[in-house]
Amino acid sequence: MIITKTPYRISFFGGGTDHPEWYRENKGAVLATTFDKYCYISVRILPQFFDHKYRIVYSKVESIKNLNEIQHPSVRETLKYFNCHQGLEIHHDGDLPAKSGLGSSSSFTVGLVNALKELEGVHSSPYELATTAIHIEQNLINECVGSQDQISAAYGGFNEISFHSDDKFTVEPKLFPPNRVNDLNNHLMLFFTGISRFSSEVSKSQIINMKNCHSQMNELHDMVSEGSSILNNINTPIDEFGKLLHRAWISKRSLSGKITNSKIDELYSAAIKAGAIGGKVLGAGSGGFVLFFVRPENQDKVRAVLANLTYVPFNFENTGSKIVLSQPNGF
Predict the structure, then answer these.
(1) Angle at alpha carbon of residue 247, lines to 269 and 31, rounded to 5°
(2) Tens of pLDDT along 25-36?
(3) Which domains, ranges and CATH numbers included, belong to the chain?
(4) CA gap 326, 56 in Å, rounded
(5) For 277-295, what is the mean pLDDT?
(6) Which of 8, 287, 299, 324 could lock onto 102 through a cystine, CB 3.0 to 4.6 A?
(7) Cβ contacts of residue 116 below 8 Å, gap of 6+?
């Protein structure tokens, strides 16, 4: 049996510029980090005496004989990519809900790729994990997704990721002063709206409108270096990071009418009135998790006005996808 542990991510700045439709002709970059909530994938060879050949357990349970009949798109296309015809049992467990803006789908794919590589006896670098997951999601599943989630899940930690016109990418680990990172962590509050959605559907509306939003997209790109500069300079008030998040949210919500809705606008406004300096809907938008930058002395007030949402405390992490168990299962 193989078990992988793959983190979810929080993207601060540059979201949208990581789509191939943008960075193949323009500059693409994001500032993102992973945090201590994870996707767990277990894979074991299935004994031949079962009636089914594949058993996949997630929010559904699939017990089937033919690879092409697998409903879960990532499992189906990843197994096809690996030309995997032996019987397998695959289980998924996640610390947080799927379809919620934390890159959970890509964490799943990266974790599954990592597990299948380990099953083959091959150790994969973060670069190999990320590029394989990007290929599976964008070219085999044909999902309208960007390229940052797979990279964050594979590498882990605080990174500035640049995307190039030839579809390659550069990962620059950000070694901010530890006290600065802790200060940022202590100013961030994560809430679940209770709304799950398919990010690819929201992303499609953004991509269609990208040609009409060059100034906003370039502004979002430039905020990546600005955000890094704020965190690097201990003489800059940490509140400036929160103000930049607010500017980024205002700019991003203008890209498409599907990024926000009346419910999100209301809760964002309520949090700001209660003391939040800035915030954003994570991922493509339209639901999922929202992140707020709030001074510690105002956090009780923000929790109170958002009492109908689920508050999720978290800490940054820097491991990336890893194998936590690898042993023969005896068949």
Answers:
(1) 115
(2) 998 999 999 999
(3) 2-175+317-326 (3.30.230.10), 178-315 (3.30.70.890)
(4) 19
(5) 86
(6) 8
(7) 43, 78, 79, 82, 84
